[in-house]
Amino acid sequence: MMKRTLATIILVSSFSLSSAVMAASLADDMKTLGKNYKVFNQAKNPQDATAALNNMRGAAVNSKQFKLAAHTSDKVPSSTDLFEQIIVEIDKAKALVQAGKLDEAKQQGKKIATLRDQGHKYYSH
């Protein structure tokens, strides 16, 4: 009886801990996206812009592992699809930066903010 109770407590504790770690990781990814979006928009050269976009892409790719539940009854894309759309927009902006079109890349980058805002609308509680 004692072993069964102890095993149950350990199992429940491990689920609680893993949920807290996942939430912290997603929160960290969102902070990385936000911080680097700002850096990207303030970049004066392709190197800084590319570094910020690479950081944003890494955070978006990592975020795809989290399956978020929408808090609205509207028809919404899955969180995975939304992160995938953000990655596509980051890649488009990066291609423009690499082509020497930093100002156009920043215009393209506004779509990233639009998708971010859409995600906050659907998935923030």
Task: Describe the protein's architecture and organization.
By secondary structure, the protein is mainly alpha-helical. The protein has a single domain, classed as Cytochrome c/b562 (Four Helix Bundle (Hemerythrin (Met), subunit A)), CATH 1.20.120. It is built from 4 helices and no strands. Helix 2 runs antiparallel to helix 3 and helix 3 packs antiparallel against helix 4. The longest helix is centred in the first third of the chain and has 41 residues. About 10% of the residues have low confidence. This is ATP-binding protein. Keywords: ATP-binding, Heme, Iron, Metal-binding, Nucleotide-binding, Signal. Belongs to the cytochrome b562 family. Its cofactor is heme b. One of its GO terms (molecular function) is electron transfer activity.
Distance between the termini: 40 Å
CATH architecture: Up-down Bundle
Summarize the amount of helix as a percent range.
Answer: over 70%
Nearest-integer average pLDDT: 82
Rg calc: 19 Å
**CATH fold title:** Four Helix Bundle (Hemerythrin (Met), subunit A)
> How much of the polypeptide forms β-strand, as a percent range?
under 5%
Cofactor: heme b
Keywords: ATP-binding, Heme, Iron, Metal-binding, Nucleotide-binding, Signal
Protein name: ATP-binding protein
Pfam families: Cytochrom_B562 (PF07361)
Question: Which characteristics define this entry?
Answer:
mainly alpha, ATP binding, 125 residues, Four Helix Bundle (Hemerythrin (Met), subunit A), 0% strand, Cyt_b562, globular
Task: Give a short synopsis of this structure.
The protein is mostly helical. The protein has 4 helices and no strands.
